[in-house]
Amino acid sequence: MGNCLTVGPNEALVVSGGCCGSDTKSYIIGGWAWAWWLVTNSQRLSLEIMTLQPRCEDVETAEGVAITVTGVAQVKVMTDHDLLAVACEQFLGKSIRDVKAVLLQTLEGHLRSILGTLTVEQIYQDRDQFAKLVRDVAAPDVGRMGIEILSFTIKDVYDKLDYLSSLGKTQIAAVQRDADIGVAEAERDAGIREAECKKEMMDVKFLADTKMADSKRELELQKAAFNQEVNTKKAESQLAYELQAAKEQQKIRLEEIEIQVVQRKKEITIEEKEIDRTEKELIATVKRPAEAQAYSMQQLAEGQKTKTVLIAQAEAEKIKQIGEAEASSIGAVGKAEAEKMRMKAEAYQQYGEAAKTALVLEALPKITAKVAAPLAKTNEIVILSGEGGRVTGEVTRLLAELPVSVNALTGVDLTKIPLLQKMASAEA
């Protein structure tokens, strides 16, 4: 029996041996293989990138200057079948540290040999070319081991005698000297050029001032001419504008009048239609109902008239009967009153003045009541007089005016009655 072995893409599985003394070797990358117990051997080889840092200390260059160089190399096992078989022969069973040590010694040896053929300036100034040279020289040797150099770069170059710094100082001093010379020459040329430019500037300025004065004078003349022409054109334009504005205003006014006329016509039409509508509405809502109401009232009036006539006829007949009855009654009363008056007249003729006096005395209470009726609501009468004797005079005057008042109310002259004449004489 045996085992089924698997391997990832970052490793190579080497299966060797087999039944019947087979010497076949199988190389599997990212796959699987069958291994028999006891007769089959399986080993693994890493295909991952290995980082090497070769370092050469105090190596003399072509000029005999000792320098130290460090670099960085990225290498890996090649996956080609033949080259993979070579790598397996060289490194199978070794650890990654042992493989790195072999490759590191190879690279450092080639690095030392190349450093002895170059000057310090070539190594320091062109590191990329130096690294390319190391890579090209070392690649065949490591390739025969089944190893591929992916990249090689120079990390640092320095020495213990400050040769590189002195070289830099010399270069810096030369550059500084050239810079100072360049600055001085530039300042000199700048001063010369500045003076020339100032002279040219003054010449140009004087010429420009002259031309400017001439141009200004011509400009003022042209401006005066232009202003005169512009003012003339403005006046003409203003007059033309006012004339045109008046014409346009007149046209606008005519248009407004026409619009008003049209509007008025439309309003008249609308008013006529409104009148017709109102008339029809009045006919429908007022006239027709009024006619119906008038007819109804006419019928009611005729009926009321008939009723009133009949009632009036009945009332007339009633009044006639009542009148005849009252006339008869009044006639009888009148005859009685006439007889009474005749008898009073005969008595008055018989008694003369005494009868008249009795009649006046009989009427005086009624007259007094009528005269005193307005004074019934009077609580108090105050007669104001400055003297005590005038109260008596006022009362006498009132009594003297009483016959006049009675005569005005009744037509009877009290002064002609003998009894009163006697009373008045006695008082006098």
TrEMBL record:
<dbReference type="GO" id="GO:0002020">
    <property type="term" value="F:protease binding"/>
</dbReference>
<comment type="similarity">
    <text>Belongs to the band 7/mec-2 family. Flotillin subfamily.</text>
</comment>
<dbReference type="GO" id="GO:0072659">
    <property type="term" value="P:protein localization to plasma membrane"/>
</dbReference>
<dbReference type="InterPro" id="IPR027705">
    <property type="entry name" value="Flotillin_fam"/>
</dbReference>
<keyword id="KW-0967">Endosome</keyword>
<dbReference type="InterPro" id="IPR001107">
    <property type="entry name" value="Band_7"/>
</dbReference>
<dbReference type="Pfam" id="PF15975">
    <property type="entry name" value="Flot"/>
</dbReference>
<dbReference type="GO" id="GO:0045661">
    <property type="term" value="P:regulation of myoblast differentiation"/>
</dbReference>
<dbReference type="InterPro" id="IPR031905">
    <property type="entry name" value="Flotillin_C"/>
</dbReference>
<comment type="subunit">
    <text>Heterooligomeric complex.</text>
</comment>
<feature type="domain" description="Band 7">
    <location>
        <begin position="87"/>
        <end position="269"/>
    </location>
</feature>
<dbReference type="Pfam" id="PF01145">
    <property type="entry name" value="Band_7"/>
</dbReference>
<dbReference type="InterPro" id="IPR036013">
    <property type="entry name" value="Band_7/SPFH_dom_sf"/>
</dbReference>
<keyword id="KW-0175">Coiled coil</keyword>
<protein>
    <recommendedName>
        <fullName>Flotillin</fullName>
    </recommendedName>
</protein>
<dbReference type="GO" id="GO:0005768">
    <property type="term" value="C:endosome"/>
</dbReference>
<feature type="coiled-coil region">
    <location>
        <begin position="216"/>
        <end position="281"/>
    </location>
</feature>
<keyword id="KW-0472">Membrane</keyword>
<dbReference type="GO" id="GO:0016600">
    <property type="term" value="C:flotillin complex"/>
</dbReference>
